[in-house]
Structures are given as C-alpha cells and as structure tokens.
Design brief:
Mean pLDDT: 78
Number of strands: 0
Helix content: 40-55%
Structural class: mainly alpha
Number of helices: 3
Distance between the termini: 30 Å
Radius of gyration: 17 Å
Largest sheet: none
Length: about 110
C-alpha cells in the first residue's frame, strides 16, 4: 500500500510542479480549490491510464504475446512519462476511429526521444 501512495504522490508532484508545488492562494478556500482540482486531475490521469493499460493488455493477448499475471500485477496506473506538463495544450478532439489512439507495434524499436 505504501508504494501505491508514494506513486500517487509522485504523480501529483509531477502534475503540480508548474507552481513549484506551492499553493499560491492567500486564503484557505482557494487552497482547497487547488487541492480539489489536483485530486480531480490525478483521478482523470489514473482512469485514462487504466483504460489504456487494459486495452493494451487485451491487444497483446489477442496478438499472442505472453502476458503473465504476475507481470500485470506490477503495472501501475500512476505512470507519467507520456503526460505533457509544459507548453501548449490542445483540447480539440481528434478523429479517433474506434474511440482510442492506436497502440505502437511492440516489435518496432522504441524511440528514446518520446
């Protein structure tokens, strides 16, 4: 349980770092709003990661790759490497046939710059 909480706190620090992890509001209610928004964002990221992890595992199984239960038990939805916390954000909905972004081919070489 401790590792799960530490992973969630680590994700929160990553998301909240734009203000250097400091609450900027001068009044208590503003701080509660900031923390509430951070909790909502963390929950959204966790749900997004969980949905995509489940779909990725289902696709790997369908393609015949060995997916071991003990490996799946170690996967965490608190990963953050793919989350852009810098720069510009686009909220335009892309055209996604099937409702999700396509997965990378597991047999292709992974690009280290991503």
């Amino acid at each position: 349980m401790r590792n799960l909480q530490e992973s969630r706190h680590d994700l929160a620090r990553h998301v909240f770092h734009g203000k250097k992890g400091e609450l900027r509001q001068k009044y208590h209610t503003g701080m509660e709003d900031q923390l509430g928004a951070l909790g909502l964002v963390l929950n959204c990221i966790t749900l997004w990661n969980t949905v995509y992890l489940d779909a990725a595992l289902a696709q790997l199984r369908a393609q015949g790759y060995p997916v071991l239960a003990e490996d799946v038990a170690r996967i965490t939805p608190f990963m953050r490497k793919h989350i852009n916390v810098h720069g510009h954000y686009s909220f335009a909905l892309p055209e996604l046939r099937g409702g999700r972004r396509p997965f990378r081919d597991p047999d292709e070489d992974e690009d280290e710059d991503d």
